[in-house]
């Protein structure tokens, strides 16, 4: 029974391509894990092997991303969307413990994901403060407005300021968040689509979270990195008095952390895939090496697209361009289908843009190799020459 | 690269053994799914292949379990524990739409899982009605008290009555729930640990749910089967007025159903494993065949244990004994470790009882074969003869 495959050139936005050697190991482990006679999806999450998977994954992540002892790492199910719900309730509880009040969470909106996060907080009964909405400021998503246009919230009233470090749909990524504008406010970042793609200074963050299914695994696990000082909450009774919604128990951060991410049955096999991806990244040389590769990949593609300014259009302002999701359109929109068809003919797949943006999107996550991007760049080049 | 394994005899309570042929197919599909060149964990949940996995799984389940058109099937992440939170908020919303009030959910408590479900509803701010608590009635869990000892709630006040059809920890299973005692009340059953183990008359139920990781898959997916008439809710504003907590958006049943279980990224690979398990069960002959096998397996083990009444103890009353989780202890408790060691020596594993009950527990889920149970029964026999 063969577990071989031709190396894919898949540029999907997530779930996304994973290293073939990782999947081959995972496939074997699905049948028989560590010689136990049963697979990694069958072992108990309370067994030594099951607990080992969680612990190794945490250790590897701490090591790779230099996560300081001030921060805790844990896993939840439900994806980033569940984070949109659990972040306001959990972080407002921590804020209430310190301040005695509910406060108003602040949101920086630079694309559809941060917008959704803000809307969910409001739906749950939080009165959010919008720091900036790039769509209102610029008429469309595609830039990060200058900080002098932002409305900075008052720290005493603000449990946290939330932003999305990389907007997958719109291809907008922060080069660096203006931390210094928010003294005394906890900073929360959704890094779902640039998770582990670059070094991060965690001392700046109250919370960083990301779904696994872009850079580090398959769908079904979300990784959270939280400042330990944010884990002390008032009682449920007190929270109710302050009109702070009670978090469902499986998403109550202190509860989950107290049970090493296994308050309820953890998806062990999906965590094991993350473990293997991280192990692979350590062997490859670590986060700086990966970042250099990511820079090379995106530079190559952006510079190729820029060679044909009358043919291709790059809707994102240069300073806000994502290293992970390269969004581009063909000025003659009628050529989109032809582009995708010809690309697919040479086995370059997953390039169709998000339905809300149109055109093309090439996601260059960690597992997408430089040779793959070279093939895509060559195709981009050839297609422009043939059709311009 | 070999994907073979010796057939396991694993009796763990969940995650649990799965059919080897299912795992072998899943392993191949993890690398390359349907010749697409990428695996089932890498494809987009919005692609034809990804949507196909969800649709086939729903179709197979409908077919196998004869789910009527009055009911909808959908998938969530988070396991049964997330159901403990999402059921009171969702079903109370449906109840409020019809009655204009919040009501008080009713709970039948026959073991630790139904107890946890009731506690979570209370934690979220619901004033629950306890129909019966077997522990209070009998001093311990291990029986289902006679229905004449139950306090039957008033239908006009009761959004639903909740029970756990099979208590995994205590090995207590309903032969048949007394539906007729609750006219006009929606009945909700947690079937996590006897999911698809027997036919079910869904016309009796408002909602049936179960985590995949016992009978039908790996951890990370929970399956819900809900009556369509329970999907109409008042506005968030009206819910707030009635003091009904707002459900996090990824667990709002009408929202999830409106997006075919993919409101947010669904764990496609974990759903695919369910798809393969169901396909396998269809090939095997369906639910009645599986039920007959399950009856044979549990009869064999219980009758073997009963042959040694001075040596083994069966803590669960005969009428409430689970077909899925056979709980037993050795009267001389000092022999437990020896039993587990000798069993492990002959490759019978996963037999340790839950920490809260002690002794042994043999989980005889669908994938555990009759020959495996025969081996276990022979061992039970031999061990008693050697040590009594």
TrEMBL record, chains A, B:
Q: Does the keyword Secreted apply?
A: no
Q: In which pathway does it act?
A: Amino-acid biosynthesis; L-serine biosynthesis; L-serine from 3-phospho-D-glycerate: step 2/3
The cofactor(s) it depends on are: pyridoxal 5'-phosphate
Location of the Aminotransferase class V domain: 11-376
Offer an example of a GO molecular function term for this protein: pyridoxal phosphate binding
Give the matching InterPro entries: Aminotrans_V_dom (IPR000192), Aminotrans_V_PyrdxlP_BS (IPR020578), Pser_aminoTfrase (IPR022278), PyrdxlP-dep_Trfase (IPR015424), PyrdxlP-dep_Trfase_major (IPR015421), PyrdxlP-dep_Trfase_small (IPR015422)
**Which EC class is the enzyme in?**
transferase
According to its UniProt entry, one GO biological process term is: L-serine biosynthetic process
Question: What Enzyme Commission number does this protein have?
Answer: 2.6.1.52
Q: Does the keyword Transferase apply?
A: yes
Which keywords belong to this entry? Amino-acid biosynthesis, Aminotransferase, Pyridoxal phosphate, Serine biosynthesis, Transferase
Please provide, in alphabetical order, the Gene Ontology terms of the cellular component aspect for this entry. Answer: cytoplasm
Which reaction is the catalytic activity of this chain?
A: O-phospho-L-serine + 2-oxoglutarate = 3-phosphooxypyruvate + L-glutamate; 4-(phosphooxy)-L-threonine + 2-oxoglutarate = (R)-3-hydroxy-2-oxo-4-phosphooxybutanoate + L-glutamate
Q: What family does the Swiss-Prot or TrEMBL record give for this protein?
A: Belongs to the class-V pyridoxal-phosphate-dependent aminotransferase family. SerC subfamily.
Q: What is the designated name of this protein?
A: Phosphoserine aminotransferase
Originating species: Eeniella nana (Yeast)
